[in-house]
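Continuing the batch. This is chain 6 of the set; chains 1 through 5 are on the previous pages. Same settings as before, nothing changed between runs. Recording input and output for traceability.
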Amino acid sequence: MERDLDLLRELLFKIEGLPAGEGIDIERLMLPGYEREKLGEHLLLLNEEGLIVASFQWADNRLFDAYISRLTGKGHEFVKAIQDNMGWNGIKKRTLAACQTVGKESLKVAIGVLIQESLRRSL
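Output for chain 6:
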């Protein structure tokens, strides 16, 4: 499955908007135009990258359910870095050009670059 950077961004914004201490399950995170399987894969990716704290339940080797507790500190920094649409589009364009396809390694690079750029802007 190809990674959708815009979906990752939307998920992070939605998770960030949760009241403190209130988690969310995958059903409440559903976004128009996205299938549950694709959403689940992207939540797994965010969890693997250390941007969210989540637990997953599997049945028959398929994601059955996911519960997202919160953003991590790294997740909050990343969300701060991607708030600006112009900055987001520039980083996304450079990432796609450099990596041709958006895979796990290119996402790691993008996260690092976005956080670094966000910190530079805030100085």
